[in-house]
Amino acid sequence: MKKSDFFYDLPPELIAQIPATPRDSSRLMVMDRKTGALEHKIFRDVEFLLEENDCLILNDTKVLPARLYGVREGTGARVEFLLLRQISADTWEALAGPGKKAKPDTRFTFGDKLSAVVLEALDNGNRIVRFFFEGNFFQILDEVGQLPLPHYITRELEDKDRYQTVYANVLGSAAAPTAGLHFTPELLDRIRARGVSVGFVTLHVGLGTFRPVKAENIEDHHMHSEFYSVPEETAQIIRDTKARGGRVIAVGTTCCRTLESVCAQTGGITAHSGNTDIFIYPGYEFRCIDGLLTNFHLPESTLIMLVAAFCGYENTMHAYKVAVEEQYRFFSLGDAMLIL
């Protein structure tokens, strides 16, 4: 298939700039993946769409406040750093801009608690940066850093916790697993009370999530790699769900990629961790999930391709056409779709 097959026309005003309040008041499109039939509901209605013996799997990754604004020693030039990957306790791979002001051996300060030196400029343009600090790096980062909101969100969030899920627990993501942003603790409690098991995996979302597909033939696209972990408790929940005939419902494309990666690498659902660059597009045969809860994704993105793999190309493009007509809110802070 071609990248252009996944294009749809989206009016800019439908790109959500602020989250719904309360979280579970977002709109929810519900699709029957076999027929393509659509219903329109409110997100909190999801509790009535799940059945006893189902399980809901969520990604408990937590977004790092990974955007730092530093001042270059000597010149006072302001440079933005975006932390991508931790190499050691004090050393990270980062994006830096403007790059010409962040050459090797240049030093920067980020307030009075944090400073850094650029060690190396990589071939891909990224920088290796060593930080200097006293105490806990992540506590300092929480004070001086900012959440790296996607480029299409042009307004700062009044409450930065709204770009974290209520169950975020494991620091490491450059972006939020946004399908989970709609849940409240109370909604999750009601879901559990219905006999639905809730389990957690971790996949640290990388900036590659937003990297556009450049190859016209989608099979030529190479996915970025991301770290994931599935604990034994969650693996057992999924095995038990399958054994009693329940449905495994992944919250977000990150959960979907995690579970399908484990099946591909181990032949089943087991406790496992590692890195995955799995690319799911139409023609893929799903081994684990029976349902998918996800937001509405960018045109021509790997995420809309994953959705099309799960519920069919025609069903997906029709649903997106209807979503535009019905003025759903799109992307990270927007509305959701449940595919069963």
Question: What's the layout of helices and strands?
Answer:
Blueprint: E1 27-31, E2 38-42, H1 46-49, E3 55-59, E4 61-63, E5 67-72, E6 78-86, E7 91-97, E8 107-109, E9 115-121, E10 127-132, H2 137-144, E11 170-173, H3 185-193, E12 197-203, E13 226-230, H4 232-243, E14 248-251, H5 253-266, E15 272-276, E16 291-295, H6 302-311, H7 313-325, E17 336-339
Parallel strand pairs: 1-17, 3-12, 3-14, 4-11, 14-16
Antiparallel strand pairs: 1-2, 5-6, 5-8, 6-7, 7-10, 8-9, 9-10, 12-13, 13-15, 16-17
Helix pairs in contact: 6-7
CATH third-tier fold name of the largest domain = QueA-like
- Low-pLDDT parts are none
CATH homologous superfamily designation of the largest domain: QueA-like
In terms of DSSP E residues, the strand content is 25-35%
Task: Work out the helix count.
Answer: 7
Question: Could you say which structural class the secondary elements and strand pairing correspond to?
Answer: alpha/beta
Write down the overall geometry.
globular
